[in-house]
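Chain A, query sequence.
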Amino acid sequence: MRNIKNPFQYGGIVEGAAFCNRKKELTDLATAVESSEKLFVYSERRLGKTSLVHTALRQLTKSRYASAYIDLWPTDGELSFVAATARAITESMSSNAGQLLDVAKQLFSRLTPSVTADAEGKPKVTFGFNLSVQPGPEIEEVLTAPAKIAERGKRKVVIVFDEVQQVLEYESDMVERRLRSIIQKHQNVSYLFLGSRKHLIQKMFLDRSRPLYRAAAHYPLGPIGMAHWIPFIARKFREGEKMIADDAIQKICKLTEGHPFYTQHLCHALWELCEAGQVVTESLIEAAIKVLLDRESYAYTALWESLALNQRRLLKGLASEPAGVKPFAGVFVRRHGLGSASNSQRAVESLLNRDLIDRDNGSFLISDRFFRIWIGQRQVQ
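Chain A, predicted structure.
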């Protein structure tokens, strides 16, 4: 058999042939960008927002669009926000290393740019600041840059702020306030805000007291439907001279609830276990699940032992009940020994804060699909 690389990707940006469907979402994003809309794209963690947006950006015609992707996850305040935004915009506008410094100086007169080499020897631009004053003017400069680029280059500009909920960790709401006041005036600039902690995102965009209240249209991203997973997974196995029936794929999707990260992860493990010419069976799927749970057993056990009793009971309830169950309802509270609806509410709030569960159409779900399976299989106390 020819040596074929495992076609299922997880854990990073999934692109190219490994990217499954999302055709409607890509069309919707293209329409939003063309209309220079401000859009907030939110979902659970690992649901593929970043992969989706990177795919959408790659499909833009370079002669008509300029784009910059800013990852806010590493930022911890206004200065790091300015640095991350300035760096991403500069690098997106520079076609080669020699242009980095010139572009940085042209766009950001209040910053002190320099070009250094990273660990791999590749050039990167960094920025210095005057630490003795408030960074308000610098924030304004980096936020007005996209409109200037659009005006000068006669192109539409797309700015992506990933993990935007990180700005809630800053000492003040200065970034939020400047974002609101500056970007609402921009023409020919589209803004995509990506977020993955829905309870924090709702605080940012739906709380009337926050500066970004209703500042962007909402675009919730859900799991990938089974109708799209079936042909995608079947084709990948078939190309590797392995066989998998539709009912086996349906079982996989039921276990992962169509979540891209966990579906790709499980299929990756299953691919490794399945030999050329072999048919994927239910026992092989169970073996793949065992491999994955064994790898995470120590971490899951440590996590479980760190939880309070009512938190464990609520998780056991969510793991064993059908989707959409109401954890504050009397029947759920009694069945799972929570004592009262208020106990269940406190358990939910603490688990939300730890990102162990997420809101789901009036109910809640366990974010880590493999952790849910682990809980269900072990019936731990």
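The beta strands are 38-42, 65-71, 112-117, 123-128, 156-162, 189-195, 217-220, 357-360, 363-366. Residues 309-378 form a domain with the Arc Repressor Mutant, subunit A fold (CATH 1.10.10).
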